[in-house]
Structures are given as C-alpha cells and as structure tokens.
C-alpha cells in the first residue's frame, strides 16, 4: 500500500479512486494500482516511510571522518567550498 498527501493549492479534492473527498494536507492510503494513477500529479505527493534509527544528538556523534578536512569538496548545491 502507498500513501499520498493532498498538496493541492485548490484545497479539498474529490478523489474518485477512493470514493471520497480528501481534505487539504490529508494523507490517504491507496493500492499499488491506484498509486500509479496518482504518481507524477502535482496535486499529490507520495509519503515515503521514515527511515529507522536515531538522529545524533551532538555533531561529533554523526561519524564525521576527517572533520575540518573538507577543503575543496563539492557541496550539495554543486559548488566547491
């Protein structure tokens, strides 16, 4: 089963696939066959399962190797530091 969230700027949507009106921000669970109809539509955002595990409480717990040794590495936005 897949989950999709109504992210439409128009608000509530009548979703015939589930036979009811879906409120803004509401998440609905649909079958794999129904999900194929919603994928790629701007009004629907797939809700992915959260990853397990805990978040580090301190930066030194994040497992950073060579901290402070990142000169010249590419950043997520594609620029070099």
What does this protein structure show overall?
- The structure is a single chain.
- It is elongated and about 50 Å long.
- Helices cover about 10% and strands about 25% of the residues.
- It has a domain at about 1-45.
- The model has no long low-confidence stretch (mean pLDDT about 80).
- The chain is mainly beta and about 80 residues long.
- The strands form 2 sheets. The protein has a 3-stranded antiparallel β-sheet with strand order 4-1-5. Strands 2-3 form a two-stranded antiparallel ribbon.
Radius of gyration: 20 Å
Residue runs with pLDDT of under 50 for 5 or more positions: none
Beta-strand fraction estimate:
15-25%
Number of strands: 5
Largest sheet: 3 strands, antiparallel
Strand order of the largest sheet: 4-1-5
N- to C-terminal separation? Answer: 42 Å
Report the helical percentage. under 10%
| Count of alpha and pi helical runs | 1
Name the average pLDDT: 82
> What class would the helix/strand composition place it in?
mainly beta
Given the C-alpha coordinates, what overall shape results?
A: elongated
Written as H for each helix and E for each strand, in order along the chain, the element string is EEEEHE
Layout of helices and strands:
Blueprint: E1 2-6, E2 13-15, E3 20-22, E4 27-30, H1 32-38, E5 44-47
Antiparallel strand pairs: 1-4, 1-5, 2-3
């Amino acid at each position: 089963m897949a989950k999709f969230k109504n992210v439409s700027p128009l608000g509530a949507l009548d979703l015939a696939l589930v036979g009811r009106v879906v409120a803004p921000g509401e998440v609905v669970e649909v079958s794999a066959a129904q999900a194929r109809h919603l994928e790629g539509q701007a009004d629907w955002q797939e809700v992915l399962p959260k990853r397990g595990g805990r978040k580090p409480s301190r930066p030194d717990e994040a497992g950073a190797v060579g901290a402070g040794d990142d000169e010249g590495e590419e950043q997520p936005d594609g620029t070099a530091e």
